Amino acid sequence: SDHMENICGYLMKYTNLVTGWQFRFFVLNNDAGLLEYFVNEQSRHLKPRGTLQLAGAVISPSDEDSHTFTVNAASGEQYKLRATDAKERQHWVSRLQICTQHHTEAIGKNNPPLKSRSFSLASQGSANSPGVQRRPSQNAVSFFSVGHHRLPTGKRVPIMQPDHLVDVREMMSQAEGQQRDLIRSIECLPASGHLTSLDQDLLMLKATSMATMNCLNDCFHILQLQHASQQKGSLPAGTTISWLEPKISLANHFKNGAAQNFPAEINKPASVREEQSIAEPCQLTREPEEINPDEELEDICDDKEDDLGAVEEQRSVILHLLSQLKLGMDLTRVVLPTFILEKRSLLEMYADFMSHPDLFIAIASGSSPEERMIRFVEYYLTSFHEGRKGAIAKKPYNPIIGETFHCSWRMPKSSVATDAGTNSSARCPSEQATPPKDAEGQAEPDYYTVKFVAEQVSHHPPVSGFYAECVERNMCVNAHVWTKSKFLGMSIGVTMVGEGVLHLLEHGEEYTFSLPCAYARSILTVPWVELGGKVNINCAKTGYSASINFHTKPFYGGKLHRVTGEVKQNMTNTVVCRVQGEWNSVLEFTYSNGDTKYVDLTKLSVTRKRVRPLEKQGPFESRRLWQHVTESLRDGDIDKATEHKRALEERQRNEERLRAETETPWCTKYFLKDGDGWVYHKPLWKTVSATQTQQTDSN
C-alpha cells in the first residue's frame, strides 16, 4: 500500500561509539514530514529529543544485517536505526519512503526553478572583501544561483538531429567550464574566517555539482550511441561509425585533494623536506641486503585501529570523494583521505598474516600428505584475523615503489611440538632426537626462526612480493599480490590478484593458493570489513586439494564473516575434512574419522614480530619511510599526516616521471620477474639445491 500513515514505536538508535545503541520512541508525522524521537513513549508530550525533515531525505536499508536502516536528511544529519526484525524494518522503511517522496514532490511544485542558468560566486575578491564576509545566519548555498530551463508543457521532445548533438556538446563544454570555475572559486576561499573552502555546504555543493556533471556526461554518451545506431541502419555495410566528438574527459584537478594548496617550501617541516629530497631509489644501493635476525628486537608497537570518530566527523569529505566516483570505477589512482588510514603499510599487513608462526612451522611436521594439507588449511584460515586487526575498515598505506619491510619471528621448538597441528603427538624425527649441533659443535638454538621480507615491485599496477622461510624446517612461501580496488556504491571491493606457493622441501611438496576478496561496507556510517569469494589450495604431487568459500552476508538474515571449506583427495574424490565457522571467531574442523576440533581465534596466542630499530632501517623500509605519517596519526593531527603523505606521493610521481623521460627501467631489490609473477632472488629451494649439489660433488 502507498497510502500515508502515521506510525510510532520503539527503535534502537545508534548514538556514538561510547554510548552505542539505545532504545528510543519514534513518531512519523506525515502531515509535517517529520521523523521525531523521544526518550520513551511517556515523554512524547514533551519536546522531541531530535527531529529530521524528511523532504529530500534518503532512506536506506543497511547491508550489515536485516534489522538496520539509515535515514539521511538533506541537511546532512543522519539517524542509524535498528528494528526488532526484518518485517518491522520493512514497515518503517516503506512508510518513511512514502512520506519522503510526498514532501519532496510538494517542495518541487511549490518552488519553480530559477530562470538563471549561471554558476557564479557573489564575489571572488580577497578574503577581506565584503562579498566574502558571511553573516552567521546566511547559508553558503545562497552565494550561488543555480537554475535550468523547463520545457513548455504539452510539447514533445523532437528527435535529436546531428547538428543538435553538436549544440549539446557545446553546452556540455560550457557547463564543464562553469563547474570548473565553481570548484576553483570555492577552493580559492581562505582557510579560516566566516566562509572557508571547507564549509560543509560548499563541500556538499562541490559533491553534488560533480555528480551532476558525471550524470550529464553519461547521458550525452547514450545520445551518441543512439545516434550512431540510427546512422548505422541507413549506411552501407562495412561503413565505420566514428564519434561526433570525443567523450568528455573530466579535468584532473577534480581528483580528491589535487587542488589543495600547502604552505611554501620554507614553511614546511624539516621532515617533509627530507621526504621530498631523498635521492632517486635507483641511485641508492639496490643490492639485496642480508638482514641479521639478531639485530631485530621484539616489536613493542601496538597501534589499535578502534577509533572511528574521525570517520563520523569527516562525512562531508567522504561525500565529496564519493561524488567523483562511478560504479565499478578503479580506485588505484584515487587519492583517499588520510583519516581513513591505519598506521601501517600494506607490506607490514602481509607480515601480520604470519602472526601464528607455530601453526605455519607445524605444517611440515605432519606425518602424512593428508595431515599436512589440513594443517595448511588451519594456518591459512587463522591468518586473516590478525592480518586485518579486527573488522574495522581502515586502509593501510599504499607502498611506495621500492619500499621494503623486514621482520622475523622466534618460536620455541617445544611450543610447536606440543601446541600446533591436528595431531600434536605427531613429530618429525628431528624434533624427537637429540638437538643437532652446528659445525663448531655447539648446540643449535631451542627456537625456530621465521624470516620475512616484502617489497613493492611495481607501482602501476600496484604489485607486492613477499617471501618467508624457516630454514630449520626446510620450508618457505613465496607470493605476489596485485591489489585491484573498485567502487561498488556504498562499499569498496578489493580483489587480490596473484598467487602464493608454499614449499615443503623435506617432502618435495608445493602448495599453490590464492587470496579472497575484501569489502569495506557501510562507508558512510560505521565502516566494517568482510571477506568474500572462493579460494583454492592445491598440491599436485600428493593429489590433495582444498576449496574454501568466504561468504558475504546476504541482504536478509545470515551470519557475518562466515567461511566453509573442505579438503579432499582428488584421485578418489574423498572428502577428508570439512571446516565451517567465522574467520574472525571460531572455526570447527570435522575429520573423516568423526573427530571434531574447535579453534577459537580470539584466544590464539599471537607471536610478536621482531623488527630492527628505526635508526638501523634503510630509508625505504616501511616504518622509517612512513614514520612521520604514523606519528601524526597517533597524535591525531590529520592535516600534518596528510602533508607528510602528500610529500611521499609527490616524490614518487616525480621519480616516475624522471624514469619515463630518461627511459630508465625500475630495478627491484629482492624480487625477480618470473613470467607473470615475482620470485624472491635467493629462495630456500635454490639454496638447498645448491648445497645438495656441492655435497654430491665432494663425495
Automatic annotation (TrEMBL):
GO terms for molecular function: sterol binding. GO terms for cellular component: cytosol; endosome; Golgi apparatus; membrane. Residues 4-101 form the PH domain. Residues 104-137, 416-442, 638-658 are annotated as: Disordered. GO terms for biological process: lipid transport. It is found in: Endomembrane system; Endosome; Golgi apparatus. Belongs to the OSBP family. Heterodimer with OSBPL9. Keywords: Acetylation, Endosome, Golgi apparatus, Lipid transport, Lipid-binding, Membrane, Transport. InterPro entries: OSBP_sf (IPR037239), Oxysterol-bd (IPR000648), Oxysterol-bd_CS (IPR018494), PH-like_dom_sf (IPR011993), PH_domain (IPR001849). Pfam families: Oxysterol_BP, PH. Residues 117-137, 416-433 have a biased composition (Polar residues). PROSITE patterns: OSBP, PH_DOMAIN. Plays a role in regulating ADIPOQ and FABP4 levels in differentiating adipocytes and is also involved in regulation of adipocyte triglyceride storage. Weakly binds 25-hydroxycholesterol. Interacts with OSBPL9 to function as lipid transfer proteins. It comes from Irena cyanogastra (Philippine fairy-bluebird). This is Oxysterol-binding protein.
